[in-house]
Amino acid sequence: MIALLALALGVVAGLVLGPTAPGWLDPYLPVAVVAAVDAALGAARSALEREFDDREFIVTFLSDVLLAVLLVLLGDLIGFGGALSTAVVVVFGIRIFTTASALRRVLIGR
Amino acid sequence: MPPDTPEPASPAEPAAQPGDDPKPADDPKPAEVPKPAEVPKPAEESKPAEESKPAEESKPAEDPEPGEESRLAEDPGTGEDPGTDEPPPAQPTDTDPSAEPPADRGRGGGASARARVARGATLVLLAVLGFATVVAVRSADPSHSLATASPDQLAARLRAIGADDRSLAAREGRLRGERDALASSPPAAAQASPGGDAVARADEFAVLAGTVPVDGPGLELTVRDPQRSVDASVLVDALQELRDAGAEAIEIAGVRAVVSTYVADDPGHGLIVDGMSVSPPYVLRVIGAAHTLDQALRIPGGVLDTVAARDGAQASVRTSDHLRIDALRAAPRPRYARPAG
């Protein structure tokens, strides 16, 4: 519940403040968001399975986001351009769907 | 959540648990508490000591309660309510707490504080996620996409726009020229009689039609052919090559070359140019950009090479800044073709 509230709070803050991301952040923000969504979904799943752990979530969240951003940065540096960010998005996309199906199983299985 | 939180902590200080457990008697829920307890120093942890610091543990107390914890799974906040329970034996020793960082110390106080921080961080991260999502969505807005595009994309876009710009500019120039021509042609025609444009155009046509002598820079191509091995095709090629190179007036063996000029073989004699029989050496006088014409003739496999390949034939080129062509043509009188429109 509170987690959802926090999420909603962030969204509202985003809508209200209406910030624009600084230019240098633009290539990284989307992958960071996808990585974060993946982490959050994973957290929801483990919460439903009564295995949620804050620290694990924090570490997962931060490290995944950081890794995704670094990968994209690396891709830019070595000239892949957006290719590596596509790769990151694909991988996280797959994970998100996997997690989503696990979530479904937990929710429906009950 | 409490159940969750203890687990992470527990790995670090598993040994402590057994020792702590003794408390069960004091607290109704001690049994549960002990597990979460991360107390590093079981020996030191005296139950009395722990109890002595209820104040600190009052908050942590929340976690110890099993029932609540289970509910708490998602809400850290709820966890605090349980605080009402008796102080759990979280603190091992008074001395220890001070010495040890809060995280390490007693299961109750340290673990819960830690858990709360972690929970807070979790919520903050989720809020950040929501926030970042909104920002990302906004960034994806088309109006924002230029700022977002990579240098490659920008370059490609710039090229495309540049190409569009050029083609549109060219089109604009063409249409503008047409418009100006249309707008000015009636008056120009009117002014034509006094002179100016009309005279200039007449001169241009006269040069093209070969009705006036011309001079200017150019070159003179001389083809010597004692054995009559140079045929018409060589001169036709030469003529074409010179025209390609921008020749404006050409004289072939004394005949002014114009649009209708032809060259044919005249076996035994030489060639026929526009009905005139000519014999070698053939001298072509050409007015145009001398250097360009010269290069055109010297192209590998071009006119000079072709002539040199013929038996006994030679070709030489002499460029000049002032060349004069005196051969003239009568103005053509088209019998059939009439200006249309």
From TrEMBL, chain A:
Q: Which InterPro entries match?
A: DUF1290 (IPR009709)
Keyword annotations for this protein, in alphabetical order, are: Cell membrane, Membrane, Transmembrane, Transmembrane helix
Can you tell me where the transmembrane regions are? 80-103
A GO cellular-component term linked to this record: plasma membrane
Q: Short name of one Pfam family for this protein?
A: DUF1290
> What family does the entry list?
Belongs to the sbp family.
Q: What is this protein called?
A: Small basic protein
- Species of origin reads Frankia canadensis
Q: List the top taxonomic levels of the source.
A: Bacteria, Bacillati, Actinomycetota, Actinomycetes, Frankiales
TrEMBL record, chain B:
What the entry lists under InterPro entries is as follows: DUF881
Q: What is this protein called?
A: DUF881 domain-containing protein
UniProt xrefs under PANTHER family:
UPF0749 PROTEIN RV1825, UPF0749 PROTEIN YLXX
Give the family from UniProt: Belongs to the UPF0749 family.
Q: Which top-level group of life is the source organism from?
A: Bacteria
Q: Which Gene3D superfamilies match?
A: Protein of unknown function DUF881
Segments of skewed composition (Low complexity): 182-196
- Quick one: a GO cellular component term? plasma membrane
Q: Where is this region: Disordered?
A: 1-113, 177-196
Q: Where is the composition biased (Pro residues)?
A: 1-11
Compositional bias (Basic and acidic residues): 20-32, 41-74
